[in-house]
Design goal:
Layout (H helix, E strand, L loop, with lengths): L25 H9 L1 H4 L5 E2 L5 H17 L9 H21 L21 H18 L4 E2 L1 H16 L1 H4 L10 H12 L5 H14 L14 E2 L5 E2 L1 H12 L6 H12 L6 H18 L4 H20 L2 H17 L8 H17 L17 H4 L29 H12 L5 H13 L5 H6 L1 H6 L8 H12 L3 E3 L2 E3 L1 H17 L2 H4 L3 H14 L3 H17 L6 H5 L10 H13 L2 H15 L5 H14 L4 H16 L4 H24 L10 H16 L8 H17 L6 H15 L4 H32 L9 E2 L5 E2 L22 H10 L5 H12 L3 H12 L5 H14 L12 H15 L18 H6 L4 H9 L7 H8 L2 H5 L3 H9 L5 H15 L4 H17 L2 H16 L5 H16 L5 H6 L1 H14 L6 H14 L7 H12 L4 H24 L6 H13 L7 H14 L13
Antiparallel strand pairs: 1-2, 3-4, 5-6, 7-8
């Protein structure tokens, strides 16, 4: 289970549109097109694995990223397309011109002067020369300017669509032969498909020019057998090759051949021949992948031919082709795309058997004006005569071919296909056929209504089916089934708006409007929400009778419903403000969304229900709450989870609404309902439903309900509070992280609620003098009873039973003991729980103490608990989670510090010892501020006041100012040790900002300190290294602090050189800290510190050098490598001084040692080799090589 965070619901302003209003990147794109010659210099760069190829691919990817923004609104590019295409085609034409003796634009054969006579041989030779020149200019593995232009044109066609962009291609007859030559050349090369794709698309517009291709013999070329191929045959040969391609050029080849063979001058000679060839390819194809591509290409080509061709020309060819497709089982192939194209072809063949006609009964359309349609007067719609059907009574006398029955049978079988693309294609095909049987009308109502096949008398049945389709959602295994159904239902509504007059749909307006809004607001899938919004908009515009349609449409538009959280939490409450929809929205959330299979939908539904309920509180209170209480203890896991989530949020919302309206709580939440809510957690625990596989969901839901009840201050009985506390204590140490977080959140609210409730009883106790009625319950003004056991007041009215205080010192002590548990989840959970301790609880404790309800002994115990908590440094994969506990402890001490006897300034000086300051330097800035405010209870209070100045000034301090102010506390002897360790912990920690501020503060203090103070500073750090057992959390930070001050500054040099005993003790402490150590970071810090100490003129230099040489033979390669590097640096910088002080025997010996250190592979070499080299260095420096340890038998 992943936690659902509040940030996931954050959204931009509702009215902020995601649409664009212009092609704003035009200037940038134009510059990229003009820069093509600069990124492909000298006509091309050879493709290499790395290097120049990147220069060409980077602009291509940049252009792709830019154009992808306009995928949803490609029409914005229309006004600039011609300009961009002119630039790109100019590069291609110039490349072709440079490879020919005569430019393409001045070719002797033009669109205005085509000679069908003359020497065929001369034209053939010219074409061969043109082709040869182009081949010589293009190499197989070079990228040219033309190649880059082809890529850019492909991107433009991909975004805008090839049907739109091809109209703006240059289309002169003079372009025909060069395009054919380029296609033939590129097919023989290992080039990318962009070139062939664009050339085929270009050729498809060129052949549409009004000239006779059959007579165009100017570029005939001999084939291998010596015969002459006409341009048409050359094109067909190119097409046949590309129809078997696996790239997008296959689709362009199919588009080109459909235009070519249906030309008036070619259809008699080539149409039947190509159809027969394609039929043979499809029927003889195997299951091989290459053969499958060829089948796809020919099926698409035939489908486009039957789309573009004339009916009377295709009718003789339709029968044989249909028989071949059905006999070969093409419509039942395993490839879904093959099935789709085959069924598409079958449908278009069926249309050739049927003459076109218009249904006699079809509706009469009104004016297509929003201003007229939205008016309420039906006479505003002016009917238009249907002139397309002059004699409707004779329409049904039409004979149908026998093949249509087989075609409809195939299409009906296609409706059961498991692939959506196949079903949709068959659905569209069936409704295009106006002679389909009645079964088709009930199978696909969307397409039927759009094409006028749904009679007005069927609308009641259609609307009834729509109501079911709007909410259809079924989980099968790990997948949900139903999004396609809901999407189709929305588009059916969209079609109904276009098909019928407002008066026809008027009885169903409320049902359609409500259903569409439910899908637009609450559907899980974005496409369904978009479809419902579009259908709602269509009805508002065309029908004009949806309740509050215009008002709703301004907010619930196509783009705003794209964010699911926005739809649930912002748009749904807005729509619910209209009374026609509020109850329906609340009912839908309870009935369908709170029991949804997706946990995120259930969580959003619970939050949305609380917002929607404010517009229909009576219905939610009287109808929905009892249903939720029943579902909360039901048998279905998802229904229980959603119901419990909704119970808490709905109860809190109704409580707040009652308070805002000045009503009693019982107006919306009766006593029976509240009692049932309090029993939910107890019943689930008794049935053991908070354990096992679904236990995590139940614990999270119950924690959310408890949080809502506590924050809403509902009258929760004392036994229920204790029941909830027990459950939350278990949740805090649960293994699931989401359960931990929800438990921490809820128990913090529960603590606060319990203390506030206890504080509210004090005025009553003071006034009535501890009077308790005969039933043992004190009744407040609202009639809420407080259990005698939960809030018993003694005769003096001053002491409160500890059982009544959930957050008692004993409870805190028990929680703190759990932090020492061996269970990781237990430690993490309680660290987070105490870290989430709200300030409200502490303020209420202060109020209770001021009334004398917390004794001095209890307060001392509480402060001791908090002081113990400041020593918590628990860490896990999330980092220093103990910081939550430390911060909460210091905040608590700030509040409780003034509760002692004597005004708080001196009452707890012992408790407020200097040990607290050790924590300060290592915590966040907020903790630093809290500590300043808590200084009023410490000893040396007046001196500390002089340091801290005023409270307001402390709150304005940043990190660096805070550290500088803390330096003054180092002047007090009682705080030096702990504050020094706190600084060391910060300086050696993982936070770079905290380390830098601590380093600057310490350096500033040491620069002003006396030698004695510096010695105290060093001894304080040494005590950590020699302490038994060592405090592991401080050892590494202390080592890093020593490394910094010895390696990066000279503040400690004079003291260590003058005090030989202190220097020797520091070396011994460093050696002791690394004995038996396997922590790489500690060893590296010790090594760096010792290497820098070689520059000091002390008696321990030989000992330091000996220890560093020992590190050269260490078992860890990284330690050896770092030691060798440190030694090379130290001996190179301080070598002369070491020789003069007698640490090294001679400069020659140092040079030999440096050579050994630099030439030895300390990381890669074996341990025996590196130890041999280490011993060699020892002998050169007159040191005794370490002897290996003898194994004890």
């Amino acid at each position: 289970m992943g936690p659902l965070k509040e940030n996931d619901y954050a959204a931009d302003e509702v009215n902020l549109s995601c649409s664009l209003d212009m092609f704003e990147d035009h200037a940038r794109v134009k510059k990229m097109l003009k820069d093509i010659p600069t990124i492909v210099p000298n006509g091309g760069t050879k493709c290499q694995p790395f290097g120049p190829l990147f220069i060409e691919e980077k602009p291509f990817e940049d252009l792709k990223t830019i154009l992808d923004k306009y995928q949803a609104q490609p029409h914005l590019m229309d006004s600039h397309l011609e300009e961009m295409l002119t630039i790109l085609f100019q590069y291609i034409i110039e490349a072709q011109n440079s490879s020919q003796e005569k430019p393409m634009e001045t070719n002797e054969t033009t669109s205005h002067d085509i000679s069908c006579e003359g020497s065929t041989t001369s034209h053939t030779q010219a074409a061969k020369d043109d082709k040869k020149d182009f081949q010589d200019s293009a190499h197989a593995k070079e990228t040219t300017v033309a190649d880059q232009a082809f890529k850019y044109i492909y991107l433009l066609s991909k975004v805008r669509g090839y049907k739109s962009i091809v109209k703006k291609f240059p289309h002169e007859v003079s372009h025909l032969m060069p395009i054919i030559c380029m296609l033939e050349t590129y097919q023989t090369q290992d080039c990318e498909f962009y070139n062939i794709y664009v050339l085929l698309l270009w050729l498809s517009i060129v052949i549409y020019m009004p000239f006779s291709l059959d007579d165009f013999s100017a570029a005939s070329t001999p084939c291998s057998a010596g015969t002459v191929l006409s341009p048409v045959k050359r094109i067909l040969k190119i097409i046949d090759t590309e129809l078997g391609s696996s790239q997008s050029s296959r689709d362009m080849a199919a588009f080109l051949v459909s235009r070519l063979v249906t030309r008036p001058d070619l259809k008699h000679n080539y149409l039947a021949e190509f159809v027969q060839h394609s039929t043979k390819v499809i029927s003889e194809s195997s299951m091989e992948s290459r053969s499958s591509f060829k089948v796809l290409g020919h099926l698409r080509a035939l489908g486009l031919i039957w789309k573009h061709g004339r009916r009377d020309e295709l009718l003789p060819l339709s029968g044989p082709l249909l028989q071949s497709l059905l006999a070969g089982g093409t419509t039942r192939r395993t490839d879904s795309l093959v099935r789709k194209l085959a069924l598409k072809l079958v449908q278009r063949i069926g249309l050739t058997f049927l003459p076109p006609r218009l249904a006699a009964w079809r509706y009469q359309r009104g004016k297509r004006s929003l201003a007229i349609n939205v008016v309420s007067h039906p006479e505003a719609v002016v009917p238009v005569e249907n002139s397309s059907c002059p004699n409707p009574e004779k329409e049904e006398d039409v004979s149908v071919a026998a093949e249509v029955e087989d075609i409809i049978d195939e299409l009906l079988n296609g409706l059961k296909d498991h692939d959506t693309i196949v079903r949709y294609s068959c659905s569209k095909a069936l409704t295009t056929n106006r002679y389909s049987c009645s079964k088709v009308l009930t199978t696909n109502r969307y397409s039927c209504s759009r094409r006028g096949l749904l009679l007005p008398s069927t609308l009641p049945e259609v609307v009834q089916v729509l109501q079911k389709a709007f909410v259809y959602d079924k989980l099968l295994g790990q997948n949900s089934v139903g999004s396609n159904v809901r999407d189709a239902a929305c588009y059916l509504c969209w079609a109904l708006a276009r098909a019928y007059e407002p008066s026809t749909l008027a009885p169903y307006v409320q049902q359609l409007a409500t259903g569409l809004l439910l899908v637009a607001l609450f559907d899980r899938e974005i496409p369904c929400r978009h479809a419902a919004s579009a259908a709602f908009q269509e009805h508002v515009g065309r029908q004009g009778n949806f309740p509050h349609g215009i008002d709703i449409l301004t907010r619930v538009d196509y783009f705003s419903v794209g964010i699911r959280a926005t739809s649930y939490l912002e748009l749904a409450p807005f729509v619910a403000s209209f009374q026609e929809y509020s109850v329906a929205l609340a009912e839908h959330l309870v009935e369908h969304k709170l029991s949804h299979w997706d946990v995120v939908v259930r969580q959003l539904a619970a939050k949305s229900l609380a917002l929607v309920a404010q517009h229909c509180p009576e219905h939610c209170s009287a109808v929905l709450l009892p249903r939720l209480l029943t579902a909360a203890t039901g048998a279905v896991l998802v229904a229980r989870h959603g119901a419990i989530l909704a119970l808490g949020s709905l109860a809190a919302a109704l409580s707040a609404l009652a308070a805002s309206r000045g009503l009693h709580l019982s107006s919306y939440l009766s006593a029976a309902v509240l009692q049932s809510m309090w029993r939910v957690s107890e019943e689930l625990r008794e049935r053991r439903l908070v354990q096992g596989a679904g236990g995590a969901y139940m614990r999270v839901a119950l924690a959310e309900m408890m949080w809502h009840c506590c924050t809403a201050k509902l009258p929760v009985p004392r036994p229920t509070i204790h029941e909830w506390t027990t459950l939350l204590e278990e949740s805090i140490v649960y293994e699931d992280e989401e359960v931990n977080l929800s438990g921490v959140k809820a128990i913090a609210a529960l603590w606060s609620f319990s203390c506030e409730e206890l504080a509210s009883l004090l005025p009553i106790a003071d006034k009535e003098g501890a009077a308790v009625n005969k039933e043992g319950a004190a009744v407040d003004k609202e009639g809420a009873a407080v259990d005698k056991e939960g809030a018993a007041v003694d005769k003096e009215g001053a002491a409160v039973n500890k059982e009544g205080l959930v957050l008692s010192p004993d409870t805190l002590q028990r929680y703190l003991q759990l932090l020492k548990s061996d269970r990781e989840h237990c430690v993490q959970g309680w660290a987070a729980a105490l870290g989430g301790l709200p300030r409200t609880v502490l303020e209420i404790l202060s109020s209770i103490k001021s009334r004398g309800c917390v004794g001095q002994q209890e307060l001392e115990a509480l402060l001791t608990c908090f002081l113990t908590a400041t020593e918590d440094y628990t860490t896990d994969r999330r980092g220093d989670v103990g910081a939550w506990v430390r911060e909460a402890a210091v905040t608590a001490m700030q509040v409780c510090g003034g509760l002692g006897e004597g005004g708080g300034r001196h009452g707890h000086a012992g408790v407020w010892g200097p040990g607290v300051l050790e924590e300060d330097a290592g915590l966040s800035d907020s903790l630093v501020m809290s500590l300043r405010r808590s200084c009023q209870g410490c000893s040396d209070y007046h001196k500390l006041v002089a340091v801290c100045a005023t409270m307001a000034e402390m709150l304005r301090l940043d990190t660096s100012s805070s550290r500088s102010l803390l330096n003054q506390l180092l002047l007090f002897l009682g705080y030096q040790t702990d504050l020094t360790l706190g600084y060391a912990y910060s300086l050696g920690g993982v936070s770079a900002t905290l380390a830098q501020s601590s380093k600057d503060a310490l350096e500033g203090h040491l620069m002003k300190s006396s030698p004695e103070d510096i010695k105290i500073f060093i001894r304080t750090l040494m005590e950590v290294l020699t302490e038994e057992p060592p405090v592991e959390r401080l050892v590494l930070p202390v080592l890093r602090t020593l490394e910094h001050f010895i390696a990066s500054s000279a503040l400690l040099d004079q003291v260590l050189e003058e005090d030989a005993g202190l220097s020797d003790s520091l070396v011994m402490s460093l050696r002791r800290s690394c004995q038996g150590c396997s922590d790489y970071h500690k060893l590296v810090a010790v090594c760096a510190t010792m290497a820098e100490m070689l520059r000091l003129d002390t008696s321990s230099s030989r000992s330091l050098l000996n220890q560093l040489l020992l590190f050269l033979g260490y078992q860890y390669p990284k330690v050896r490598s770092v030691t060798a590097t440190s030694l090379v640096t130290a001996l190179g910088e301080y070598g002369d001084d070491l020789v003069s002080r007698g640490v090294a025997p001679s400069q020659d010996a140092l040079d030999q040692v440096l050579n050994v250190l630099e030439e030895t592979l300390w990381m890669e070499a074996s341990l025996a080799v590196v130890r041999e080299q280490r011993n060699k260095c020892c002998l050169l420096l007159n040191l005794q090589p370490p002897a290996p340890k003898k194994k004890v038998n």
